[in-house]
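Following up on my earlier message about magnesium ion. Here are the inputs again, as you asked, copied directly from the submission form:
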Amino acid sequence: MTASIPGMRKRSGVLRADTINMSHGGGGKAMRDLIEDVFLGSFDNAELALLEDQARIDLSALTALGNRLALTTDSYVVDPIFFPGGDIGKLAVCGTVNDLAVGGAIPLYLTCGMIIEEGLAVSDLRRIVTSMKAAADAAGVKIVTGDTKVVDRGAADKLFINTAGVGVIPSHLNVSAHNARTGDVILINGYIGDHGAAIVGARGDLAIENDIQSDCQPLNGLIKNLLDACPQVHCMRDATRGGIASVLNEFAISSGVCIKIKETSIPIRSEVRGMCEILGLDPLYLANEGVVVVVLPREHAEAALESLRRTEGGINCALIGEVSDAPECTVILQTAFGGERIVDMLVGDQLPRIC
Ligand code: MG
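Thanks, got it. Here's what our run produced:
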């Protein structure tokens, strides 16, 4: 915190406790110390430092960027809260940034609502908040307002986070799940299933150990490059819970088209494929936190792939399929053995509390 931010009060609170207790959600001095020390100290921006009940955002700065406001919210309940490649804080920032970016929006501001279980180590909370700030900086967004609640032991599991996000969509873009057309192709930016596999490994409850890292990352930089190169993108969605199978079904149903993908074209690590085979999981439904599925006219495919390859998160990009008119609202997989099968929406839950 610097004294140069106009209107900012001097931070005074210091949190001395080792674990969070009920008083940290009580609205009094202990909560103030928690907010000032842990949240203001880390997130460090002028909007938050004013400690109003709401962040105030200059409208003219927003309208200069586009003609539509994008608003999204997501709650994060991942178990465990620390996993290879990330933690619940990084996930909460990246997930909300990505939900804005896949609509073509430039992500700008995030909120942070925390529901903390009594007994959470303050060191764990600090680590998570630091990780949120690092992810926000990487994505170029600010966490400008928030809320903290503490609940009794057993009423939550360590920590749940809700992040809402605001962004602006430039006027020349029209990205929607309803826009897939016959002749379009399907692109993906990288390996599928890494997040799901990393969480399974981190839980250890299936006696599976692996070195797979979650792909958790902000995609807005990669998506901006893509849209600069190819503003003609028709559909875009990040394939989180439910995997790429769910996203492709959403496109097929919303657009009333058939999407055919080729199993041998889909990038997947051999460790992830192996883990899926052992556990009987289908990698098409495995969660990702850094994978975007893109639909665009075939004539722009090469330019799009070239643009993706220039960004670190897109080095392993691939063209995995195409759009046709029938059978409508259907996703078909051409298998590695030359057969075909329908890829349906997921029924039930493959892995609970994955994000
Ligand atoms: Mg999403």
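One observation from looking it over: The chain has a mean pLDDT of 94. Hope that helps, and feel free to reply on this thread.
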